[in-house]
Amino acid sequence: GVCNLRLMNAVADWILEEGTLVLLKPQEIANMVWAYATLGVNNPLLMAAVADWLSMDGATLFEFKPQEIGNVLWAFATLGVDNADLMVVVMRHITQEGRLAEFHAQEVANTVWAFSKLAVFDSHLLNDVATWVLQDGRLALFKPQEISNMLWAFATADSHKPDLMAAVAALLLQEGALSKFKPQEIANTVWAFATLRIRNSNLMATIARHVLQGCVLAEFNSQDIANTVWA
């Protein structure tokens, strides 16, 4: 994207000064904070205002679709904005109000990644997500990045979910599955297994063979290689 800092700051000032935030629709709020995060522009006053608005009334979040909730969380985590009140409100909203049933794979992955990125760990949320993923064949709907982000989140939270990890391992062992994974996604996945101290010799051998075939290893950067050999 093209980042014009003066423009981004001017937009933030306009929203804050004119009280425009309360007039924005949920999708507009989600798109706005997504844009700031994508461009790496952290406007503390704007992000604080968004957090306050969403935390003010629990009913407000019911107006947000799962994708919008996921995008908001992703934006806060990407910018490293840790707002405890917002995270608690969103966490309760997802776990206690039954909203998780409305989520799709990407939204679930973004949500748990965001919480772990901000070091906000909640066993109820992680338990609910693990259960949700294992139901109705949902894991097969996850893209490689979503799988690796989800596993990274569970490992970062030191949340052990043997059934989930076994299901992921079985998925990765399917013929051709690893060819869809980018080097970083492979590295994050094996890092998660190692961090959670889950030894799956068959999976590790399969990944090793995949990395060593053709030009796969040449696509790895130094961090990917380091994480993979460490795992």
From TrEMBL:
Domain of life, per lineage: Eukaryota
GO biological process: mitochondrial RNA processing; regulation of mitochondrial mRNA stability
All residue ranges annotated as the RNA-editing substrate-binding complex 6 protein domain in the record: 26-229
Molecular-function GO terms, alphabetical: RNA binding
CC terms in the record's Gene Ontology section: mitochondrial matrix; ribonucleoprotein granule
Name of one Pfam family that matches: RESC6
Name of the protein described by the UniProt record: RNA-editing substrate-binding complex 6 protein domain-containing protein
Native source organism of the sequence: Eutreptiella gymnastica
